[in-house]
Design a protein that fits this description.
This protein is mostly helical and 477 residues long. The protein folds into 3 domains: 8-116, Fumarase C, Chain B, domain 1; 121-219 and 237-372 and 455-471, Up-down Bundle (Fumarase C, Chain A, domain 2); 376-448, Orthogonal Bundle (Ribonucleotide Reductase Protein R1, domain 1). It is built from 19 helices and 6 strands. β1 (163-168) and β2 form a beta hairpin. α3 crosses α7 and α11 (247-274) packs antiparallel against α12. The mean pLDDT is 96. The structure holds arginine.
């Protein structure tokens, strides 16, 4: 029979086995390296379980005290790094077994009572929800920090009146205020923060703890007590669903992926804007890297890496979804693979958001170049067509008439000018980028008053979310 003294030490299930597992297979099946990131959430989960055991009269008060003190010590050892070293030096399938073993070492006989009525199935599910809840809140804060920085920079550029030729298909389209672009970036991050907040809230709904392996327990576990201590709304209502459900974790990985996807789009633009061909922005030395060969190079690596990480995170989400696809209800060992995906997605997303925040703070807009090019490439042509339409011309005729003037100007190698306006019969129409922006009339447009209102609304949305965020994670504000 395999006992606690056989290698690997501290198997939680040796009773019915005659020999120890093949060490290579045990190593293959171990998630310990990644799991150390979730160790402290397991301790929180385990302490709540002890409270549930005491609540149900399943362990004596002195045993509950001993277990709780041991778990508190493990928590301290996790924080100072000694637990990680202790666990890695031994062989464990996962951090849950390692913590159980360390508790038994510290608490003595009382330690053998920790796992009463508990399966690693409800334990893992609960631990991962605690992890997702906290990192979803971190992700939301990271997004809101970026949004706030963007709002501040948008307000600055609005005051300066900086213009830029906005593009579609990367072709000059229409002049806009740079502030409209920066506010658009901010809005993407507000939405990303909202997605994270919803995930945090969902992760705090139902506590799987006390669902056992899949069918619940014959022991009168204090499920409500444990759920309350972990700040869940309620114990999960279906034990079979609770242990195998990974929906919130998929949503969390999706929110991570979507946030970095959001960051990848302005990153793409900033990479191009930083190239001498555009010359719209300069990146401080602090956010640039050089070439080991070409002495003149100055590369916007952080923004390129963010684009790259977005791709990797799409892969992470696809991997998590594929792991769950077609998996029958309840627990299957495949689900162990979702833990590493969630942990790495969380770290990649938080790091990428921080990198975007830092790197964007190092972006210097080259105002003369942006302003100088905003009206180039016939970007006011649409305004001229609009002026004709306002005078009663049909859209098709207006489009054709202005298109013909553009073709003529292009052939002559000049911009649209007063002669074009005279020919079209619209002398008052805007010819330069500044006038074009000021001529806009619709709500939400690039007119300075509308951009000012948009920035105010963005700031209001950020402030509202900052205020409600703790409640999403069920934290006292
Ligand atoms: N190592 C597993 C994990 O981390 C623990 C769950 C094991 N459950 C089981 N029935 N074998 O997901």
């Amino acid at each position: 029979m395999v006992t606690g003294r056989d290698t690997p030490e501290e198997l939680q299930w040796g009773g019915r086995f005659a020999s120890a597992p093949d060490p290579a297979l045990l190593a293959y099946g171990s998630s310990l390296g990644d799991d150390l990131f979730i160790a402290r959430y397991d301790v929180a989960c385990s302490r709540a379980h002890v409270a549930g055991l005491l609540d149900g009269g399943i362990v004596a008060p002195e045993d509950a005290l001993a277990l709780d003190a041991a778990l508190e010590q493990v928590g301290a050892e996790i924080a100072d790094g000694t637990f990680g070293a202790w666990a890695i030096a031994r062989e464990f399938e996962d951090v849950h077994g390692a913590i159980d073993a360390r508790v038994r070492e510290i608490a003595g006989p009382a330690g053998d009572r920790l796992h009463s009525g508990r399966s690693r199935n409800d334990q893992v599910a609960t631990t991962m929800l605690l992890f997702a809840r906290e990192f979803a809140l971190d992700g939301a804060r990271g997004c809101l920090d970026i949004a706030a920085l963007c709002a501040a920079r948008a307000a600055e550029e609005l005051e300066r009146g900086t213009l830029v030729a906005a593009t579609t298909h990367w072709q000059p389209a229409q002049p806009i205020l740079l502030a409209l672009w920066i506010d658009a970036v901010a809005r993407g991050f507000v939405r990303a923060a909202e997605r994270f907040a919803r995930v945090a809230s969902d992760a705090a709904r139902f506590s799987p703890l006390g669902s056992g392996a899949l069918a619940g327990s014959t022991l009168p576990l204090g499920r409500a007590k444990a759920a309350g201590l972990l700040r869940f709304d309620a114990p999960s209502p279906n034990s079979l669903d609770a242990v195998g459900d990974r929906d919130v974790l998929l949503d969390f990985v999706n929110a991570c992926m979507r946030a970095v996807l959001t960051a990848s789009r302005p990153s793409e633009e900033l990479v191009l804007w930083a190239s001498p061909a555009f010359g719209y922005v300069q990146l401080d030395d602090a956010a640039s890297t050089g070439s080991s060969l070409m002495p003149q190079k100055r590369n916007p690596d952080p923004f390129e890496l963010i684009r790259g990480k977005a791709g990797a995170l799409i892969g992470a989400y696809a991997g998590a979804a594929a792991t769950v696809k077609g998996l029958a209800l309840s627990y299957h060992r495949d689900l162990q693979e979702t833990k590493a995906i969630v942990i790495h997605a969380a770290h990649d997303a938080i790091a990428s958001l921080d990198a975007f925040h830092r790197a964007f703070g190092h972006v210097r807009f080259v105002h003369e170049t942006m302003n100088g090019r905003a009206g180039r490439g016939y970007t006011v042509a649409t305004d001229l067509a609009d002026a004709l339409i306002a005078g009663g011309t049909t859209a098709r005729d207006a489009h054709r008439a202005v298109g013909e003037r553009v073709a003529l100007a292009e052939a002559a190698g000049r911009d649209l000018d007063a002669s074009d306006l005279a020919h079209l019969g619209i002398p008052g129409a805007p010819l330069d980028a500044q006038a074009s922006v000021r001529a806009k009339r619709t709500a939400g447009s690039t007119h300075p008053d509308e951009v000012r209102a948009a920035i105010t609304a963005t700031r209001d949305a950020i402030a509202a979310l900052v205020q409600t965020l703790p409640a999403f994670g069920k934290e006292p504000s």
